[in-house]
Amino acid sequence: MIGNKIAEARKKINISQAELAEHLFISPQAVGKWERGESIPDIITINKLAKVLGVDLNYFSEDFQSVPAEISAVEPSAEPSAGQQKNKLNWDMSRGNWIDADFSGLNGLNEKFSSSNLQRCKFIGSDLSGLLLKSNHVDGCDFSDSNISSSRFQSAHLVNNLFNDCSLKAAEFSSCHVKSCNFSGVDFSGTTFRSSDFQKNTATNAVLNRTSFINSQLADIVFDGTLEDCYFENCAFSKVTFQNSKLINTFFKCRSLKRLQFIDCQVDRMTYEFLKNGKADLSGITLITA
User: What is the mean pLDDT of residues 23-32?
Assistant: First the structure.
C-alpha cells in the first residue's frame, strides 16, 4: 500500500524514481523496491518523503495519526484498579505522528512507541524505563526528570530535545543521530553509544561512569565533572573538550586524539598513558598522584 502511494504521489508531481532518490540521497533501486512492495522506508525516510512529495504523513498509512496537544480523548483499555499507577498506558502508540502531545507523568509505555514521529511532545517526569525507540524521529521534545533507564534507541533521529536531569542508566544508542540535545544533569552510568553521531549536545554536570562510545562520532561538545571507567573506541573527535574534568581509568583506543582539548583536567596514570599513546595534547592535564 505504501509503495503504491509513493508511486502515485511521485507521478502526480511528475518526477522519476531517480529524481526522487536524488532528493532523498538514496539509490533509485531503493525507490523501485518500495514501489514494488519489496521493502518499506523507515519513519525518518517517510517524513522526508512527505516533504518531497508534498503530502501529509496520513497519506501513507491509516496507522499514522495526528494528535492534538490534549490526549484526554484517548482512553486506556481499562480503568486502573486501586493500587495501580493512575496513568499506566495499555495501548500501542507505535507508527504514530504525535505532535504537541503531553505525556508528562505517564508510565508503562515500554515497547509501544517504535517508528513514530514525535514533535514538541512532553514526557516530563515520566517513567519510560525499558522503552524501545526504533526508527523514531524525535524533535523538540521534553523528557526532563524522566526515568529512561535500560531503554534502547535504535536508528533513531534525536534533535533539539531536553533530557535535563534524566536517568539514562544502562541505555543503549545504536546507529542513532543525536544532535543539539540538552543532557545536563543526566545519569549516563552504564550507557552505550554504538555507531552513533553525538554532536552539539550539552552535557553539563552529566554523570559518566562505565559509559561507552564505540565507533561513534563526537563533535562540538564539552565534558566536565568526573569520568570513571569510561570507554572510547574507534571514535572520531571534532571540537571535543574536557574542561575541569577528572578522568579515572578511562580508555581511549582511537586512530587520533589530536582534536581533543583538555582544560584544567586531572587524569590518573592509566588514562594518561592512553592519551599519550594516542598523541593527544597533554597540556591542560595534571597527573593524579597516589
Answer: 86
- Tell me, rounded to whole angstroms, the distance of Cα 178 from its chain centroid: 5
Q: Which domains does the chain have, with CATH numbers?
A: 2-59 (1.10.260.40), 67-287 (2.160.20.80)
- DSSP assignment, residue 29? H
Q: Is the pLDDT of residue 249 over 50?
A: yes
Residue 256 has a pLDDT of: 85
> What is the DSSP code string of 199-256?
ES-BBTT-BEES-EEES-EEEEEEEEEEEES-EEES-EEEEEEEEEEEEES-EEE-S-
pTM value is 0.69
Residue with cell string 530535545: 161
Cell of 200: 552539539
How far is residue 117's CA from residue 113's CA, in Å, rounded to a whole number? Answer: 9
For residue 240, CA distances in Å to 93, 162, 164, 207, 218 come to: 37, 21, 21, 17, 7
- Look at residue 191 and tell me whether its pLDDT is greater than 80: yes
